[in-house]
């Protein structure tokens, strides 16, 4: 019985530790320096500005013209 309680406690702590990564600052989009164009593949990313971008490539394209680039908050729509 003690082993089960210890196991469940450890599992709960690991779960809490895993949730902290979602609170970290967004990550920079991986952009190709030799930009030619973006493929028409819908793979949305959510920017730290709260906007959904159709793909990481589109976010990179828009970041090229901005003074302050938008980071990726999460993969998928906002």
UniProtKB/TrEMBL annotation:
<dbReference type="Pfam" id="PF00050">
    <property type="entry name" value="Kazal_1"/>
</dbReference>
<protein>
    <submittedName>
        <fullName>Serine peptidase inhibitor, Kazal type 1</fullName>
    </submittedName>
</protein>
<dbReference type="GO" id="GO:0010751">
    <property type="term" value="P:negative regulation of nitric oxide mediated signal transduction"/>
</dbReference>
<keyword id="KW-1015">Disulfide bond</keyword>
<dbReference type="GO" id="GO:0090281">
    <property type="term" value="P:negative regulation of calcium ion import"/>
</dbReference>
<keyword id="KW-0732">Signal</keyword>
<comment type="function">
    <text>Serine protease inhibitor which exhibits anti-trypsin activity. In the pancreas, protects against trypsin-catalyzed premature activation of zymogens.</text>
</comment>
<dbReference type="GO" id="GO:0004867">
    <property type="term" value="F:serine-type endopeptidase inhibitor activity"/>
</dbReference>
<keyword id="KW-0646">Protease inhibitor</keyword>
<dbReference type="GO" id="GO:0048240">
    <property type="term" value="P:sperm capacitation"/>
</dbReference>
<dbReference type="InterPro" id="IPR002350">
    <property type="entry name" value="Kazal_dom"/>
</dbReference>
<dbReference type="InterPro" id="IPR036058">
    <property type="entry name" value="Kazal_dom_sf"/>
</dbReference>
<feature type="signal peptide">
    <location>
        <begin position="1"/>
        <end position="22"/>
    </location>
</feature>
<dbReference type="GO" id="GO:0007263">
    <property type="term" value="P:nitric oxide mediated signal transduction"/>
</dbReference>
<dbReference type="GO" id="GO:2001256">
    <property type="term" value="P:regulation of store-operated calcium entry"/>
</dbReference>
<keyword id="KW-0722">Serine protease inhibitor</keyword>
<keyword id="KW-0964">Secreted</keyword>
<dbReference type="GO" id="GO:0060046">
    <property type="term" value="P:regulation of acrosome reaction"/>
</dbReference>
<dbReference type="GO" id="GO:0005615">
    <property type="term" value="C:extracellular space"/>
</dbReference>
<comment type="function">
    <text>In the male reproductive tract, binds to sperm heads where it modulates sperm capacitance by inhibiting calcium uptake and nitrogen oxide (NO) production.</text>
</comment>
<feature type="domain" description="Kazal-like">
    <location>
        <begin position="25"/>
        <end position="78"/>
    </location>
</feature>
């Amino acid at each position: 019985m003690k082993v089960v309680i210890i196991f469940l406690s450890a599992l709960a702590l690991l779960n809490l530790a895993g949730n902290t990564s979602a609170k970290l600052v967004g990550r920079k989009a991986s952009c190709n320096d030799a930009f030619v164009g973006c493929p028409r593949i819908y793979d949305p990313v959510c920017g730290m500005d709260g906007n959904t971008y159709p793909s990481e490539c589109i976010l990179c394209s828009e970041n090229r013209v901005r003074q302050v680039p938008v980071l990726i908050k999460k993969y998928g729509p906002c």
